Amino acid sequence: MEQFSVIYARYRRSIGLIWDAHFKYIKSTMVAIERGENINLKGAIGDTAVHIACLDIFNPYLIQNLLRFEPNFNIRNDEHQTPLHIYMKTLYVGFLALESILETGADPNIPDAKGNTCLHYLAEYRFKKMINPKLLIHVFLKYNADVNIQNYYGDTPLHRAVEHEAVDFIAALLHTEASVLIKNEENLTALDLAYINRNNKPEVFIEMSKFAIILNYLRIPVNQLFLDKIHSDESLRLFNDQCNEEFSRLKKIKVGNTDLTLNVILKTSTHAFAKYLRNSEIFEWFRNFESGQYKIFGTRINRHFKEGLARKEAEEYGYTFFRKTSQTLPEVCHDKILTYLSNEDLYNLI
């Protein structure tokens, strides 16, 4: 009864449409909309009917019913939250409507009043034991969610996941393009946070340590304290042995008809790899590569190819631009300039 009173007090000034949605009256909500009510109309605190429908006390099928009226899922309430932000808090009811919501054009990268996006919310709310985080993140990536987006404090979703000790979510993020080296306003990376909190949540530290081991094999600098932990933890020793076995195999695999080995390719920058992909044999080799035999480095190989291919296509735009506007400059100069430009910058040149 107390919960009801709080909810009632919060929404008593809301429009009739929102009141209908609030009390699960699916039928009356549909009738209200069909008689001409604006589904995107805001109530007293900026919530629309769809914001209210995304709260945890509602039947999840209400959202599905509202979708046929094409509501705007990017409208923000007084706290700058979209309906999708609110839905992230209540995913334990299942995510039946999630992909449908994203298909309507809901932007997963819209920030709330603190700069937090939907992925920041996912790191905080404790749905993870009921829903497969890898599957969930895959859905968001399909709709262009940015796993490295920073809130107004500089925290990425991975920072938040480490802070909230969401081990499964951390593991899922680390299998995407999530960076462990982005620094927040306190000049801390997600790895730094994991080390600082290592005694409070050793599982988080172990998971991040495994990723540090992978980075070390790729010659990406990491905190030596993570690597020192290998010798004192049995699970990390075992993981390091597995990495070593896979990486030894990568050293023996020649790419196409070249002398390049797969481990060398993995260590190259995206810009350098894009140049390799201009070779049709190397491109075809990676396009047909089956990564399933590499449980640790397979995902990174696929991602490196995807990023290299995107970079190659962007640089082709850049070279076209330079040939038209800077014909007197030698190509080596064009190539040097390209190293300083992002993919987005290159497309904006045209």
From TrEMBL:
Recorded superkingdom: Eukaryota
SMART domains xref list: ANK
PROSITE patterns: ANK_REP_REGION (PS50297), ANK_REPEAT (PS50088)
Alphabetical keyword list: ANK repeat, Repeat
One GO location term (cellular component): BRCA1-A complex
ANK repeat positions: 79-113, 153-185
Signal peptide: none
Keyword Repeat tagged: yes
Molecular function terms, GO-annotated: ubiquitin-protein transferase activity
Record bears the keyword Repeat: yes
GO biological process terms on file: protein K6-linked ubiquitination
Gene3D superfamilies: Ankyrin repeat-containing domain (1.25.40.20)
InterPro entries: Ankyrin_rpt (IPR002110), Ankyrin_rpt-contain_sf (IPR036770)
Protein name: Ankyrin repeat protein
Organism lineage string: Eukaryota, Metazoa, Ecdysozoa, Arthropoda, Hexapoda
